[in-house]
Amino acid sequence: MTVLALCRILLAIYYAKGFRVGCRWILRVEGAEDLNRQVVKSDHTCVKIPHLDFEIPAQSQKGEVTTIEGIVSRAVRGLTQDQAARRAEHPAEAAQIQGFVERLAALTDVQAPWTIELTDISGNCFLENPAAPRRDPRARRYSFTRSDEQNRMLGIYEQHHTEENGPSEELPMNGLSLSEQQEHLLSEADPDAMPYEQLARDEVLSFRTNCPDCGAPCDTNMKMTNIPHFKEVVIMSTSCDFCGHRTNEVKSGGGIEEQGVRFELRVAGKEDFSRDVLKSETCSMEIPELELEVGGRALGGRFTTAEGLISATAAQLRDCPGALGDAPGLHRARLDRFVERVEEVLRGERAVTLVLDDPAGNSYVQSLARDPAAPDAGLKITRYTRSYEQNEELGLNDMRTEDYRPSPSRSPSRSPASECAAS
């Protein structure tokens, strides 16, 4: 086993704490190349093959690094494990299971296309893209917001859930009870001396958090700033003194807009490279001329320039951990050639179109027109109504903004992800 493969297995186990959202992969298997796709699945990954009505429930298997063919082969081995005993005791059931096993094993011959779904409420599931860094032609990844029940399955509890069990017992800390500790806390800021809004705008706020790399306690600085002709945003930076990890992130200071927004920017010279760009974490990026597509959460939220955004993409491709090492199936040379094409854009040798698509409407591209609120000749702005799938990713379909009383005639619907995880 290579060092890279061992690291991938350890990562699948270590990252059990989960992301903020769950994920669902849908793959249409059309040939041997799809069977050889690498899959990273955690303990919480649920596998479904819809046309066979076959399901491997979450937490029925340990997290592992495998392939699509490996998932099917393991299922076949599990179903045939006790067939000898079944034939002796329950021959009718054994015959039914044998017929299903033959249909399941025939999937590896790919005589006809079939679909497999991977749903993980922790978000710790990955499906290899053989065409990377281009868009995957046969696989799609969807994110969904976890329900309260799914959060409890992961051991994540909100404050209102703990309050249902009554007040917690006062545990002493440093020889002081909770009531005595309250006396030593700093008093609240006086709103008459300085409004909270002004305090948030003028001061750099700092709070303790855990490093996303090593988990050690570190400081995160936060400041609100106003982008001209757009809106207020929150700039956050984290620096870990223990492992040296540094990160910067930009989040919108407001809510989700009524419509999504799509920017099409023609990048052909220095003036275009210098445009200010605010990319939110829900905004995806695409360069059609290079067949490059980057998901929203791949680069996170950034306030940079068009050049900085393309440069960050090239750096992430160049340092991609999945393309390092000596494991079979790694196409390092192909990736290097692709990165070189991206760097040609940065050197101004190739004109491209930079497409930013944000369903939440919280991204911004600077206009060079005399009226900064209007697009110039090299910038096209399109506002559109979100689809049901986009609203689902943003968690808007189950959100009620009016009439908060539950309707007795309408029972809350469960998403396919929650049904799959609960099984």
From TrEMBL:
The keyword Zinc applies. Residues 5-129, 209-367 form the Zinc finger ZPR1-type domain. Residues 390-423 are annotated as: Disordered. Residues 406-423 have a biased composition (Low complexity). Residues 1-18 form the signal peptide. InterPro entries: Znf_ZPR1 (IPR004457), ZPR1 (IPR040141), ZPR1_A/B_dom (IPR042451), ZPR1_jr_dom (IPR056180), ZPR1_Znf1/2 (IPR042452). GO terms for cellular component: nucleus. Keywords: Metal-binding, Signal, Zinc, Zinc-finger. GO terms for molecular function: zinc ion binding. Belongs to the ZPR1 family. This is Zinc finger ZPR1-type domain-containing protein. It comes from Mythimna separata. The lineage of its organism: Eukaryota, Metazoa, Ecdysozoa, Arthropoda, Hexapoda.
